[in-house]
Amino acid sequence: MLLIPFAIMSAFTIKGISLYLVRTTMIKVGAGIEKEIQHDLTKAIINADTQVIEKKHSGKFIGHLLFDAALIIQLVSTAVLNLIKDSLTLVALLSLMFYQNWRLSLFAIIMIPLATITAKSLGKRMGKITTQVQEKMGMITTYFSEILKNSKIIKTYQKEKFEFARADKFLEEAKEKGQKMGIVLVRATPIMEFLTGVMLAGLIYYSAIMVDEGTLEINNFFSFLAAMMLSYQPVRSLATLNIGINQGLSGARRVLAVIDEKRKISDNINVKDLLIDKAKIEYKGVSFSYENNKEILKSVNLTIEGGSVIALVGHSGSGKTTIMNLIPRFYNASSGEIFIDNQSIYNVSIYSLRKNISLVSQDITLFDDTVLANISYADSKASKDKILEACKFSAAHDFVENLPEKYNTIIGENGVRLSGGEKQRISIARAILKNAPIILLDEATSSLDADTEHKIQEAIMYLTKNKTTIIIAHRLSTVLRANKIFIVEKGKVVAEGDHKHLLKNSEIYKNFYNKQLRPH
Predict the structure, then answer these.
(1) What is the 3-state secondary structure (H, E, C) of 161-199?
(2) Is 0.90 topped by the overall pTM?
(3) What radius of gyration do the chain's Cα atoms show?
């Protein structure tokens, strides 16, 4: 009378404490693994080739980081815990059942393969639906990041109703897939309950025959029945475990595809550091095509003397930006070589190559941080005096001093709280602070007012002083001060020389000058 109640109370107490300890442990393990996966994913995205990043919308990468990683954790923590807990429970109960009556036990365990077959079918279906749900979630993340980025355009073109309808469509599709997933998940319940009912009915019938024959005692039957009833819970749990496993594997496939993506742009074996002397750049037979095999550059040959300023002039899509982007190895040339001071950029470390290059693009990239943090991004060890000096030379200091918190003002996502000219000046200040011997300048002064443009041109003059500079030229002032101008047409350098020479000898340049460069 005392022993059995005490044993039951002790068993449940031990079970409660054990479950608490194991669950807290698995929560810690799961959180650690989630952090590791997100760390590896972030590292893979940061190190990924430019072409890999450009192929996929940023919203989908965010989906991998948030949603898919969570599915993997569910697999690692919840599924693993249930597998161990329920397997041990089932083994203990089956042992007790066989101890009581091996014939009834054999009859009872028929349910295990039946439940497993049912759950296997549901698990495959669940894996497929989970993939679809995650794709929809990725699309929603992508869509909402687009909405936030283009809010002014939506308002300008009065597309609010159109976007409401689009948002509703995406959310409706996600809801339907989520519903479908939930329904498949609960579909296991009636099937398992039916199987349990059939097994219990059959077992009681068979037991009644054995009791009638005198081969089974009533007390043994009730003891066996209690063990069997308790064993069906872990059987059900283990049978449906593969549904959670399939969900986790579905998320893992998408995450690991990003983590395991092999980089094409990486250091060769035994690379050396780039040693800069005059920063002379040479392109020798350089061709480039994207993965769709459309040739962008065709056997480009050009020489840029150290310390000189060259301008690339040509129509949109002619290949000017690609020529520039090959130098810091955002892409690798399909064929040919690029040399800096007679060292192939493919035989030097990427770190040492990019260390010697500053880029000022017309697509200005700023972080949602302070002005100071954005400028010091070029050199985190730079003193405040050096940063102030860079700002003065870039004509940024005056407007920064008028900001609410001066250099500690948060500028918003991609500098949304600044004007185009202010953003450009911060970008130039960052490049000045880096003080690299090679400057790549995709000039972006065409949309600025005359006063701002004049200030930025002066800042560019300081930035490029005694530096090897490649400028994609949009303005006559840039073209006139270039030591040499290269005309790019359909992926080829078709002419080169100074402004006067090209005006006399190049029909393409003459047309370009008359249409786009000549002051009106």
Answers:
(1) HHHHHHHHHHHHHHHHHHHHHHHHHHHHHHHHHHHHHHH
(2) no
(3) 34
